[in-house]
Design brief:
BirA Bifunctional Protein, domain 2; alpha+beta; Alpha-Beta Plaits; Rossmann fold
């Protein structure tokens, strides 16, 4: 009952199968080759045209299966693996047509009834299929079209509007912690809350916490915050802002900026920033006397911090803040009890997911020997830390910092009570527990991510975008005379221009010109997606836009 069509040009499938009439669920191409002694470049071109053609006749949820001889594909699945320039670079050419590699497995000719390999150098001869691989491609989600987003909020008696920073447009109001969400971040938060409620009376502070803070938190670098300009004519007076605590939190340490070297800069005008932590909200509630002694109060929500680009540094993540008012003199034992319960719950979760117990440690802040992650370093800026909570999922690993403990500042202590708190990064916990290697995957719009966590079930994550191609570009420039180069702003521009497609930025060279003293920097920028197709042409366009943006916004002179 099958229809067989001969003399089909694989680069012009639409000419043989009209898109309205045929939408294929599977397209198989076993061992494509241009014929005779065609080199790798011609065969890459063949594959590129083939994938472009497939995009016109493949169903939305369809698959393209391409079998290649061992080594041809150029992916880590090939053993031995060829050098990239000597391979067919199949993931890169497929990405150019909007496909991602979702699975790869051995090609077993003996399991295909009647299959015979032939065509070696366009002759009726067989070729070696030992070690051959079948590559399974699926459609990528299209590039996001990020339009500017404005948010409305109430400050005092006024309604005000602000523009969401471009790098956060696709991350604002995602609702990961909402009741109907099956996102692993919410599941972990609920599991922790349920477990902790067995040891403490627990109260979830579910009221809508304000996104905006006013003023400048003491000790925090100005460029680590997402500063917000209210719409013209909408800025409230100082009195209205400082009294509108349900809508914005006011920092008392306001007026002097702190630079990266700890020095004092010039006064900052009245400004707002997106909340970098839930601590100010907790302290505002404490000052109102709304915390019941002995009850564990839980605040949770997204927080926003400008940071450098690394696989574990995120400009937005979900914080879970646990706050407990205890009798003076018992604070250390209460922190130990709180952390022990967190360790027990987390260990049980990881054992259920991966089958092994993780390494969870509580390290004194004064003796923490590892290099601080961006998360831990920023927490240090927010106030004195007692302990770092570290989670390691690999044998012998010292672990990653996923949380901190601290006691409240002196002004919030009384003669009888001391407030202790633990702050947890739920996104980092989800990554480590579910085996997610890149934080960006937590924010993907691809439905295949959440399909792996049905009804909030926690599982080891299996990537649907294997071996994504990477593209390396260098950029060098002269820094403006007499100015300190803001590397965080440089990384933030890369995030914005690429739509989070930059996976790494490394300083390659720093040069000071003799005589003039002018300073030049050279950075290596690596573009790579974790969840969608990124072709070399698109990456090159991003690099060009990035070069234009750093000239315009950072005042550098390109070399």
């Amino acid at each position: 009952g099958a229809e067989v069509v001969f003399s089909v040009d694989c680069t012009k499938l639409k000419e043989h199968f009209s898109p309205g009439k045929h939408e294929f669920d599977r397209i198989y191409f076993n061992f494509p080759h241009c014929g005779r002694k065609a080199g790798v470049v011609k065969n890459r071109e063949l594959l590129a045209c083939f994938f472009q053609s497939c995009a016109e006749v493949l169903a939305e949820q369809g698959e393209v299966h391409v079998a290649l001889c061992n080594g041809q594909g150029g992916t880590p699945a090939d053993q031995p693996r060829r050098e990239w320039h000597n391979s067919w670079q199949i993931v890169a050419v497929a990405a150019g047509a909007g496909f991602v590699l979702s699975d790869v497995h051995p090609f077993k000719a003996e399991t295909i009834h009647g299959y015979k390999c032939t065509g070696y150098r366009s002759q009726d001869k067989s070729f070696c299929v030992e070690g051959a691989l079948n590559h399974i491609f699926t459609r990528s989600t299209p590039p996001p079209c990020l339009t500017p987003v404005s948010c409305k909020t109430q400050l005092g008696s006024q309604k005000v509007y602000f523009q969401v920073p471009q790098v956060l447009v696709d991350k604002i109001n995602r609702g990961f912690l909402e009741v109907n969400s099956s996102h692993p971040v919410r599941t972990i938060k609920e599991k922790l809350s349920t477990g902790l409620s067995q040891a403490f009376p627990l109260h979830n502070i579910s009221s809508c916490l304000p996104l905006l803070c006013q003023g400048h938190p003491e000790g925090v670098c100005h460029s680590d915050l997402f500063w917000i300009a209210l719409s013209p004519g909408e800025a409230p007076s100082t009195e209205e802002t400082s009294q509108g605590l349900p809508d914005a939190v006011w920092f008392p340490h306001f007026g002097q900026d702190t630079d990266r070297n700890g020095g004092e800069g010039c006064p900052i005008p009245k400004q707002f920033h997106l909340r970098p932590s839930l601590l100010p909200h907790a302290r505002a509630i404490m000052q109102e006397g709304a915390f019941s002694p002995g009850t564990l109060h839980v605040l949770s929500g997204p927080v926003f911090r400008q940071c450098r680009i690394t696989p574990h540094s995120m400009p937005v993540f979900h914080e879970m803040l646990l706050v407990l008012a205890v009798s003076r003199g018992t604070e250390n034992s209460c922190i130990q009890m709180l952390v022990e319960n967190i360790k027990t719950i987390t260990s049980a979760l990881h054992q259920a997911i991966a089958g092994v117990k993780p390494s969870i440690s509580l390290q004194e802040a004064t003796s923490f020997g590892a290099e601080l992650s961006d998360f831990a370093a920023f927490e240090c800026q927010l106030g004195e830390i007692q302990h770092f909570i570290c989670l390691g999922t690999e044998p012998g690993s010292s672990g990653s910092c996923v949380g901190v403990t601290r006691t409240a500042p002196d002004e919030l202590k009384s003669s009888e009570l001391v407030v202790v708190s633990a702050s947890l990064n739920l996104d980092l916990l989800a990554m480590l527990l579910c085996g997610i290697s890149d934080w960006r995957m937590l924010w993907t719009s691809d439905r295949r991510f959440l399909q792996q966590f049905p009804e909030g079930e926690l599982r080891l994550f299996k990537s649907f975008c294997l071996y994504p191609p990477s593209y390396v570009h260098d950029v060098s420039f002269w820094v403006p005379d007499g100015e300190e180069f803001d590397e965080v702003a440089f990384h933030t521009l890369a995030r914005r221009v690429s739509g989070e497609m930059v996976v790494s930025i490394q300083l390659r060279d720093s040069f000071q010109q003799p005589g003039t003293g002018r300073r030049s920097l050279c950075y290596r920028v690596t573009f790579q997606s974790c969840d969608r197709a990124l072709g070399c042409r698109e990456a090159a366009e991003m690099q060009l836009r990035f070069r234009e943006e750093i000239q315009q916004h950072l005042g550098v002179t390109l070399r």
